[in-house]
Design goal:
The protein is mainly beta and 103 residues long. It is elongated and about 65 Å long. The protein has a four-stranded antiparallel beta sheet with strand order 4-5-6-7, with no helix packed on it. The protein has a three-stranded antiparallel beta sheet with strand order 1-2-3, with no helix packed on it. It has two domains: 39 residues; 52 residues, N-terminal domain of TfIIb (Single Sheet).
């Protein structure tokens, strides 16, 4: 790691990997050591829940507010702070309406 001699910010590697530049003041310098640059692959967009995914989701008793069906798929996610309880999500097995319940 190298720090900018002018402002003290962490210097970032250039495209060639042999130079570094400061993101704050723009100062450039040759790197004392070789810099390894790793390119990350772009993530693919998430697909909608298909039949094969629905077949693996658990089903529980919950009344759909839209069609009043009594069964729904359910899952939980941590949508708030770590010291808060998880949010429960439900998806109706009949009309695919999705709703959440904060506990």
């Amino acid at each position: 790691m190298e720090f900018c001699p002018s402002c003290g910010a962490l210097m970032l590697p250039g495209k060639s990997g042999m130079t570094v530049s400061c993101p704050n003041c723009g100062k450039r310098a040759k790197s004392d050591s070789a810099v390894i640059i790793e390119k990350l692959a772009k993530s693919k967009k998430l697909k909608k829940v298909g039949k094969e995914v629905k077949d693996t989701m658990p089903i529980g008793e919950a009344e759909c507010p839209k069609c009043e069906n009594k069964e729904a798929y359910f899952w939980m996610e941590q949508t708030r702070g770590a010291d808060e309880p998880e949010t429960q999500f439900y998806r109706c097995t009949k009309c695919a309406n999705t709703w959440r319940v904060y506990t």
